[in-house]
Specification:
Structural class: alpha/beta
CATH superfamily of the largest domain: Isopropylmalate Dehydrogenase
CATH architecture of the largest domain: 3-Layer(aba) Sandwich
Strand order of the largest sheet: 2-1-3-12-11-4-5-10-8-9
Number of helices: 11
Order of helices and strands: EHEHHEHEEEEHEHEHEHEEHHH
CATH topology of the largest domain: Isopropylmalate Dehydrogenase
Bound molecules: adenosine-5'-triphosphate
Largest sheet: 10 strands, mixed
Number of domains: 2
Distance between the termini: 19 Å
CATH class of the largest domain: Alpha Beta
Strand content: 15-25%
Oligomer: single chain
């Protein structure tokens, strides 16, 4: 057994944020500590302020020290940020997660969707149990590129701009193809669908053209295309036909909420924001003001995001135990739900944050 002296120390910046963010983070960190006990790695968690409440108190949403800590850490674990009543003077919401994506170059928003055993299916078709797809959302440009820098002219006309660059598209397409290659080795079909609106927008035709160019480099993976509207329809008709999907920022934002809904709700949907140097792991959901402070938040999405963090750290560090523990954590989540007795509030049940975390912990 490896002793604590030789264990690889991993610095994790924890940005819990607003609303249910701290609740789901508090449920997740002890599980990571439990896994790290006697493992050849250990975590050093450090919490840092950011978000809407912090903005209200200080006038700063993302302090430079917090950004520096996320940059210096091995990975960032993120809860949720934003609060409807706290806004910038121009009326936009506080969303430091968007700044972090740009600052840390987190261009690939990875949003897996697979139903957990024992969960009620949203689609009546029995094949819905086989949904196992990953949406890759380009996270640094697209329709979010200018964010709040769009223009309103004379209270008459508003414009936002879609930005698609060659460099941004190449790296996100390559990411999607590499992911499909790795998934193929684990028995997945091994195809990537470029989701766009290339029949209408030049920016989207450019995105697709670069997708086709990059596909040549990944002969083991099948490259497919679909329009965003047709894909939305497919998500109701045959989502089990999809493996990896890659798309522009705004389409990805919408599509990944849809796929989260397909497999059980926001509290079930994990995500990772990955770049070449840094990565941040967070649930797909926001701060959920309607249920904040009530102990009703489902921490499953954050716990599954933490499993994604372990997997990513395994690849970065070469510490195999991290990959094994990612699997252990995922299996503990599956086992907790498999009996059918665990039912989160968001799915009409009576299990809150603590009960769900405890059920998962007991299966570790
Ligand atoms: P954002 O735009 O910041 O991502 P949002 O507007 O999509 O946020 P959320 O905060 O994700 O909104 O909440 C959407 C709905 O999902 C709310 O009704 C909320 O209560 C519910 N919800 C979100 N996360 C969870 C969770 N972990 N557990 C239970 N319900 C949740």
């Amino acid at each position: 057994m490896t002793t604590a002296n030789t264990a690889r120390v991993l610095d994790i910046a924890v940005l819990a944020g607003d609303g249910i963010g701290p609740e789901v983070i508090d449920a997740t960190v002890p599980l990571l500590e439990k896994l790290a006990h006697d493992a050849p790695y250990t975590f050093r968690f450090a919490s840092h302020p950011a978000g809407a409440r912090h903005y209200k108190a200080t006038g700063i949403a993302l302090p430079p020290e917090t950004l520096a800590a996320a940059r210096a850490a091995d990975a960032t674990l993120f809860g949720a940020m934003g609060w409807p009543e706290i806004r910038y003077p121009d009326g936009t919401e506080i969303a430091p997660q968007l700044d972090l994506r740009v600052e840390l170059g987190l261009y690939a928003g990875v949003r897996p969707a697979r139903p957990l055993p024992g969960m009620p299916q949203q689609l009546a078709d029995p094949r819905a149990a086989n949904i196992d797809l990953v949406v890759i959302r380009e996270s640094t440009e697209g329709l979010f590129a200018l964010r709040d820098k769009g223009t309103v002219t004379d209270d008459r006309e508003a414009r936002d701009t879609m930005v698609i660059t060659r460099a941004g598209s190449e790296r996100v397409h390559d990411f999607a193809f590499r992911l499909a290659e790795r998934r193929k080795q684990r028995g997945h079909p091994g195809h990537v669908t470029c989701v766009d609106k290339a029949n209408v927008f030049r920016s989207m035709a450019f995105f697709r053209k670069i997708f086709d160019e990059r596909a040549q480099r990944f002969p083991a993976v099948q490259a497919r295309h679909n329009y965003i509207d047709a894909t939305a329809l497919d998500m109701i008709r045959k989502p089990w036909d999809y493996d990896v999907l890659v798309t522009e920022n705004m389409f990805g934002d919408i599509l990944s909420d849809l796929t989260a809904g397909l497999v059980g709700g926001m509290g079930m949907a994990p995500s990772a924001d990955i770049g070449d140097e840094h990565a941040l792991f967070q649930p797909c959901h926001g701060s959920a003001p309607d249920i904040a402070g009530q102990g009703r938040a489902n921490p499953t999405a954050t716990i599954l995001s933490a499993a994604m963090m372990l997997d990513w750290l395994a690849e970065r560090t070469g510490v195999d135990a991290l990959a094994q523990d990612a699997l252990r954590l995922e299996r503990a989540v599956d086992a907790a739900y498999a009996s059918g007795r665990l039912k989160p509030f968001e799915l009409g049940g009576r299990d809150g944050t603590g009960a769900i975390a405890a059920a998962i912990a007991s299966n570790l």
